[in-house]
């Protein structure tokens, strides 16, 4: 006798699990089962994929409220006064810029004044507090160390600002290696610059190309390269020098338009002596000779 057993059910709640299938098989006696039939599951809704935009410039973001973290302090109006005179190497300086700063918690409020024909200036209606004052006149005169003081609420503070001249060429040097052994070569670079005071009062070195530089070493140094040499676009002239003796005196640079300048040089030292040791083997069957070089550089 042929027995058929079929199972139909709604599969909307959950998938038919193995345990449920086992129950069905048991109900059918476990024998003569030809097939199990299930309804077709409902279709699954497809998820649409939205491609990213090719241009993000049109996407706007909500604004974030800003916050003021630094407040510039006031410098006036008040009842205090700063006045005085600006002088240079040749006397009073007319047309110099005087910058007055009131400092509060590291933040400065600034005002400026221009000196009169006699070098005098006056800045009034100021609040009391800590003040920093400096002055300059491009392209040669500047005060590199400002005058800092406390100004009372009703005080008149008088001061004299002395400007320094930065006209002419500046000459500096560097040498490697340091220290250098007597008889060994060293590289010397001499830099030539023109110091200039900017409209902001800052002194800046400008490299000077095409300058002829002569180096004099006396008995302490020998110049092993061309001397004089000409500065390049960076204002540098290179030399190869040799130290002739320990504790050699410094080198001197001569540049047209500048006074002779003593250059910074490496320390010279004599090499430590080389020692030779001969050892006789036991029984006098042979000797061993060893050579030990000095320490470079020697320790004191």
- Write down the overall geometry: flat
CATH superfamily of the largest domain: Immunoglobulins
What's the total helix number? 1
What is the total tally of β strands?
A: 23
Structural class: mainly beta
Query: How much helix is in the residues?
Result: under 10%
SSE pattern: HEEEEEEEEEEEEEEEEEEEEEEE
CATH class label of the largest domain: Mainly Beta
What value does the average pLDDT take? 83
Instruction: Name the CATH architecture of the largest domain.
Output: Sandwich
Q: What's the alpha carbon Rg, rounded to whole Å?
A: 45 Å
- Beginning-to-end CA distance, first to last residue: 117 Å
Residue share in β-strands: 35-45%
Poorly predicted regions are 1-28
Structural domain count: 3
What is the CATH topology classification name of the largest domain?
Immunoglobulin-like
Topology, pairings included?
Blueprint: H1 18-27, E1 80-88, E2 91-92, E3 97-104, E4 107-114, E5 120-126, E6 129-137, E7 141-142, E8 147-151, E9 156-162, E10 164-165, E11 169-176, E12 180-181, E13 185-197, E14 203-207, E15 212-216, E16 221-223, E17 229-230, E18 236-243, E19 252-255, E20 261-262, E21 268-269, E22 275-280, E23 287-292
Parallel strand pairs: 1-9, 12-21
Antiparallel strand pairs: 1-2, 1-5, 3-4, 3-6, 6-7, 6-8, 7-10, 11-13, 13-14, 13-18, 15-17, 15-19, 16-18, 19-20, 22-23
Descriptors:
flat, Immunoglobulin-like, 1 helix, 42% strand, mainly beta, 300 residues, 5-stranded antiparallel sheet, 6-stranded antiparallel sheet
Describe this structure in words.
With 300 residues, the chain is mainly beta. It has 3 domains: 1-7 and 15-34, no CATH class; 80-165, Immunoglobulins (Immunoglobulin-like), CATH 2.60.40; 169-269, Immunoglobulin-like (Sandwich). It is built from 1 helix and 23 strands. Strands 3, 4, 6, 7, 8 and 10 form a 6-stranded antiparallel beta sheet that branches. Strands 11, 13, 14, 16 and 18 form a 5-stranded antiparallel beta sheet that branches. Strands 1, 2, 5 and 9 form a 4-stranded mixed beta sheet that branches. Strand 3 (97-104) and strand 4 form a beta hairpin.
